[in-house]
Amino acid sequence: MASLVPGDDLSSAELIRQFQFTRILNHDTRSKSINILGTIGSTPAILIAEKTAFTAHDEAAMAKLPTVDSGISSVRLLERNDIYRWYMATLVQDVETSPGAKLSLIWPATQTHIDKYAKQRRRVIRETPELYRNVLVPYIDKMRGDRIQWVYNILSHKSEADRIVYENPDPREGFILLPDLKWDRTTMDSIYLVAIVHRRDIASIRDLNKSQIPWLKSIYSELIQATTQAYPAISATQLRIYVHYLPSYYHFHVHVTNVEHDAGEGAAVGKAIMLSDLIARLEEMSDQFYGFANSTFTFLLGENSDLWTNGYARALDIV
Ligand code: G7M
Question: N or C: which end of the chain has fewer CB within 10 A?
C-alpha cells in the first residue's frame, strides 16, 4: 500500500477502508458506541462508531420493521417463558435509508484527541478567577489556531456550507447554526445543532461580561426561531440551549438539542450550563463592568488531559 500523508486527496470512504486497528480507547454500552485508535498510512486516527437510533418519527419505515422480509433479515430465539420470548436478530440495513451505525473519523488525530476519546477518571475542579488566569488562559492560547480550523472552515463557508440551518452574517453579532457532527441528521428526537459565532474574540464563557447581555439574548431568541422554523416538529420549550464549560474548542459556540435526546456527559452537571442561566447570572451582577472572568465555575476534567496533569494538578498541588 502506498504510504499516506494527511492532506492526500483520498476519498473519505477510502480513508475508512485504510484504517488499521491499534486498540480500543473507550466504549459505552448505554450509547452503544466505541472509540477505536488506529492508523491511516502511518498517522494516528480515531474512529468513533455509534449504533444508530430507530427513526421513530418515520412511521412508514417503522411499519416495515417487524416484517421478516423487509425489516428483519434473520432471527434466533434466545429463550421463552410463558408469554415472554426474547430473540437476537439482524435488521435489514441500507446506508441511505436505514444505516446501522454512524462513524466519525478524526485523522490525523493529535495526542489531545487521543486523551479526549480514551477512558479516563475525572476530577472536579473549582476554578476561581485566579486559577482561570494562571492555568486556563495560557492553555487557551495554545489551543486556538490549527485546532479550531474546522470552526474557521464553517465560518468562511469552506466546509459544511450546504448544511447551514441559519446564518446571521453580521461579523460582530452574527453566527452560523448547523448540525453538530454528533447528529445523524435524521433522528428528530436527537436533534443536535451547534451555533458558532462569527466574532473571534470570545474563547469561552469567561470572556463574557455584562455588556454582552443584549447580544446573548438576541442569539438565544434567534436560535429558538431558526430551529423551530427549520424543524417544525419541535417547539421552543423542547430545546435545550447550553454552553460547555470547559469546552473542547475555544471559540464561543452554543449547543441546541432536543430535550428528548440523552446527550450524556455533554449535557450533564459539571459541563453544560444553560445559556439562559448564564444571561441571568450576568444580569444579576451589580457592577456594570463585571463579567465571568471574575467568577468561580466548577467543572469536571479528565485526568488524561494535559490541562489536568500540567495545569490544575500542579496548581492545586495534587499528585
Ligand atoms: O465541548 P464543546 O462545547 O467544545 O463542543 C464542540 C461541539 O462541536 C461538539 O458537540 C462537537 O461534536 C462539535 N464538532 C466538533 N467538530 C470537530 C465539528 C465539525 O467539524 N463540524 C460540526 N458540525 N461540529 C463539530
Answer: C
135, 168: one domain: yes
One-character DSSP codes across 169-184: --TTT-EEEEE-TT--
Q: Is residue 115 part of a domain?
A: no
Same domain, 139 and 214: yes
pLDDT band with cut points at 50, 70 and 90 for residue 2: very low
* Residue 194 belongs to some domain of the structure: yes
**Ligand 1 mean position, distance from CA 74 (Å):** 37
Question: Does any domain span residue 201?
Answer: yes
Q: With contact defined as beta carbons under 8 Å apart, do 60 and 128 qualify?
A: no
Report pLDDT digits (tens) over 74-122.
999 999 999 999 999 999 988 888 899 999 999 999 999 999 999 999 9
Active site residue 253: yes
The pTM (predicted TM-score) of the whole model is: 0.89
The active-site residue out of 113, 251, 253, 255 is: 253
Query: 79 CA distance to ligand 1 centroid (A)?
Result: 43
Q: Are residues 150 and 297 in the same domain?
A: yes
Split into its structural domains, the chain has a count of: 3
Position 9 confidence tier, pLDDT thresholds 50, 70, 90 = low
Which stretches of the chain are assigned E, i.e. beta strand?
20-28, 33-40, 43-51, 72-81, 84-91, 101-106, 122-127, 166-168, 175-179, 192-197, 239-244, 253-258, 272-274, 297-302
SS3 assignment, position 301:
strand
27 and 47 together in one domain: yes
Same domain for 297 and 193: yes
Instruction: Quote the ligand 1 centre to 174 CA distance (angstroms).
Output: 18
Q: Which of 249, 261, 271 to mutate to test the pocket of ligand 1 (most atoms within 8 A of CB)?
A: 249
Domain carrying residue 20: 1-52+100-110
CATH assignment at residue 8: 3.30.200.40
Instruction: Quote the ligand 1 centre to 235 CA distance (angstroms).
Output: 23
Does the residue 224 lie in any domain?
yes
Of all protein residues, whose CA lies closest to atom 21 belonging to ligand 1?
A: 181
- Atom number, ligand 1, closest to the C-alpha of residue 243: 3
Q: Report which residue type is found at 183.
A: W
